[in-house]
Specification:
single chain, 372 residues, Actin-binding Protein, T-fimbrin, domain 1, four-stranded antiparallel beta sheet, 12 helices, 15% strand, F-actin_Monoox_Mical, CH_dom_sf, phosphoprotein
């Protein structure tokens, strides 16, 4: 007999019903999505993975989290790149500083010259600074030229002139030895040109300072002799015994010395006249008395000097200018109104008028010169 097979009653496992007939796969996807959070997304270092996840999901919240994760990932990569770039720049600077911190050599030479009389002294100082990198690939050269000129005058004053110029060059050891020799030759020629310019400037300065000692000596000597001859020929008794004194400025033969000689001549011709004290070509002639005294010295019959007063300035100028024009044919280069208006006349105007008056006297034969 065959045993009977007793069938076990089957227990039905009821699956929970899902709305709209969704399948079990969708349930598992929902469970997986519910576990997705920002912490897990932050661990992903590949932007392509996040991009694929963004394409697969349709949930708004998940898409927002993925986008935030992508932005943070890009920012981290940017920060990392900037950090690496800063490190490379720092390393490059360190290497450059290490290359510059090489051997330094500085050479200073001083050359000094002095004039024959010892009144002028010129000094030229040349400083060369050579900096070579530790590896010998870079060389920097700086040349500084300083020149000074000191001149002492007879009255104790001194003139000081100083100039300074600098020239720098750098070279890198590249190419063949012939290229480096060409660079060295060009640098030496530039330095030689700089030295020549400094020497030329020094020569011009010394020539300008020493020029007054040697020029116009004959003209100065002739003017001194002329004034000395005129010293005893004055019609004024008070001034007849006087002689022209040579001023200390006659040692310098320039326009200043001629001006001083003419001033001494005026002082000699008006010495002894009341209210006259000629010290310059400006304030000493402001009241007109000096003009009147100078004209009266050569033309005593033109007017009565004793009746003139310093307070009547206009009258003094009119008498002096008109008398000089009448008796010496000297044109009235000065205007009476201008002289009255100015408390101190312009010395150039007075100096020019006195020169013209002197020339007219020479033409009249009242003043004798060496040529006459």
């Amino acid at each position: 007999m065959e045993p009977e097979v007793v069938e076990q009653p089957q227990v039905l496992r009821l699956e929970p019903e899902l709305p709209n007939g969704t399948e079990k796969v969708q349930v598992r996807e929902v469970e997986r999505r519910s576990k997705l959070n920002a912490e897990e997304l932050s661990r992903i270092e590949d932007e392509d993975v996040l991009d694929k996840m963004l394409d697969q999901t349709t949930d708004f919240e998940e898409r927002r989290l993925i986008r935030n994760a992508m932005r943070e990932l890009r920012q981290r990569k940017r920060d990392q790149r900037e950090k690496e770039r800063d490190q490379r720049l720092q390393e490059a600077r360190s290497q450059a500083m290490a290359g510059r911190a090489g051997h330094t050599t500085e050479t200073t030479t001083t050359q000094s010259t002095q004039s024959a009389d010892g009144s002028a002294r010129s000094t030229v100082t040349k400083t060369e600074r050579l900096v070579q990198s530790s590896d010998g690939t870079k060389t920097s050269r700086t040349t500084t030229m300083e020149s000074s000129y000191v001149k002492r005058s007879d009255n104790g004053n001194s003139t000081f002139v100083q100039t300074k110029s600098s020239y720098s060059s750098s070279s890198k050891k590249t190419g063949s030895i012939f290229d480096r020799e060409d660079e060295s030759a060009s640098r030496q020629s530039s330095l030689a040109a700089l030295e020549r310019r400094q020497v030329e400037k020094k020569k011009e300065l010394m020539k300008a300072q020493s020029l007054p000692k040697t020029s116009t000596s004959q003209a100065r000597k002739a003017m001194v002799e002329k004034l000395q001859k005129e010293g005893g020929s004055s019609p004024n008794p008070a001034a007849s015994q006087t002689t022209v004194q040579r001023s200390s400025s006659f040692g310098v033969p320039n326009a200043s010395s001629i001006k001083q000689m003419l001033l001494d001549w005026c002082r000699a011709k008006t010495r002894g006249y009341e209210h006259v004290d000629i010290q310059n070509f400006s304030s000493s002639w402001s009241d007109g008395m000096a003009f009147c005294a100078l004209v009266h010295n050569f033309f005593p019959d033109a007017f009565d000097y004793s009746k003139l007063t310093p307070q009547n300035r206009r009258h003094n100028f009119e008498v002096a200018f008109s008398s000089a024009e009448k008796h010496a044919d000297c044109p009235q280069l000065l205007d009476v109104e201008d002289m009255v208006r100015m408390r101190e006349p312009d010395w150039k105007c007075v100096y020019t008028y006195i020169q013209e008056f002197y020339r007219c006297l020479v033409q009249k034969g009242l003043v004798k010169t060496k040529k006459s």
